[in-house]
């Protein structure tokens, strides 16, 4: 039901000019038989984890691995069309891909391993503003960002979403904010980790689906409210650890 709902919603929005912040471009999927060996070692590891998790959740069939590799490879090629060349000594700007694509993997699981559906959804989704915040590789080396922003190698999620989480944390949860301050560690670092991984390894699958759906239906600011609500939920544990 969720797969059908987000599919129809995104398809409807991507047809509206006022909702499209980015151009989709024209991309035809590479229909070659993509194997895991074609991917980087980090991506191969991510594929193994995703397939293992998908089977544990009873969402994937035996032949799902090739489908996921197909999706990741095509996403990389599709996003490469909208990247700019940057000369930089920063390691994060040396590669065309920005690590493992947790968002594309999450959508692959939501679509129960249907590679064509997943790829079509991601292409349509890439037009919308929310894609910049949910799908982090979307803006890696992107031509949609000012060249100075790209050269810094800092993703907009860090200086937009994570920054606003810190601002809200001061007002909503001052004790948690103080605890972080005393530890010398920033909440934005934690938030960036959560958001990059789509909360994998932090939340249950149903909650991950709710997070993705909420941000798609209600807007990217719900990413910020989600992080604040998690900090509120963890407040007692955080304070206990601070005392210890």
From TrEMBL:
Domain of life per record: Eukaryota
Cited Pfam families: BROMI_C (PF23440)
Ranges for domain BROMI C-terminal Rab TBC-like: 1-243
InterPro entries in the record: BROMI_C, Rab-GAP_TBC_sf
Name the record gives this protein: BROMI protein
Organism: Bombycilla garrulus (Bohemian waxwing)
Lineage of the organism: Eukaryota, Metazoa, Chordata, Craniata, Vertebrata
């Amino acid at each position: 039901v969720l797969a059908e709902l987000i599919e129809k919603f995104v398809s409807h929005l991507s047809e509206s000019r006022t909702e499209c912040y980015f151009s989709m471009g024209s991309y035809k999927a590479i229909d070659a038989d993509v194997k895991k060996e074609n991917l980087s070692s980090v991506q191969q590891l991510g594929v193994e984890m995703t397939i293992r998790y998908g089977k544990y959740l009873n969402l994937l069939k035996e032949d799902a691995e090739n489908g996921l590799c197909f999706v990741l490879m095509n996403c990389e090629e599709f996003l490469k069309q909208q990247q700019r060349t940057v000369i930089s000594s920063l390691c994060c700007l040396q590669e065309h891909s920005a690590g493992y694509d947790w968002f594309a993997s999450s959508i692959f699981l939501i679509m129960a391993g249907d590679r064509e559906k997943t790829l079509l959804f991601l292409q349509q989704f890439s037009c919308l503003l929310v894609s910049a915040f949910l799908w982090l590789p979307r803006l890696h080396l992107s031509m949609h960002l000012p060249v100075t922003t790209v050269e810094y190698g800092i993703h907009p999620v860090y200086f937009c979403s994570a920054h606003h989480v810190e601002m809200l944390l001061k007002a909503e949860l001052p004790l948690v904010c103080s605890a972080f301050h005393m530890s010398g560690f920033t909440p934005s670092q934690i938030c960036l980790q959560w958001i990059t991984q789509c909360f994998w390894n932090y939340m249950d699958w149903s909650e991950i689906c709710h997070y993705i759906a909420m941000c798609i239906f209600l807007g990217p600011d719900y990413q910020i409210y989600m992080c604040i609500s998690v900090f509120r939920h963890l407040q007692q544990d955080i304070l206990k650890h601070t005392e210890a």
